[in-house]
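Summary for the lay section of the report: proteins are chains of building blocks that fold into shapes. Here we show the chain for Integral membrane protein and then a coded description of the shape we predicted for it.
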Amino acid sequence: MKSLLTTATLWITFVAGLSAAAASGTVLDGTAKSVATYGGIALSLVAGSRIARKEPVKSFLSRRPVLWFLFLFNGTVAAFCAVAVDGTQGAMAAVGMGLVALGAGFGLLPKRRGKPQTGRA
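The coded shape description reads as follows.
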């Protein structure tokens, strides 16, 4: 029961953070808008990373077809943002999407199974 409550709380926190980041511009102005947006982004990032570490999401995100999709889709969006969106907003979007693409790309690399070291000098 505790796990179900924790999971539900994480998902509610994640959705609340996304909502605050996306909808703060329609409700607030000025500094309050920026604080709500960045606070919502931070909240959703923390909750989302905690959700991604739990099963069944963890096993889903580590499957090869999902990693290929994330790599190709986010790489394409990063390239598009770099070309189509002007200024700092385009650069930051390209960097963020590029980091996700790189993370998925590293997940596609074969895992190296290290041999035990011998005691030779």
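Put simply, here is one thing we learned. The two ends are 55 Å apart (CA to CA).
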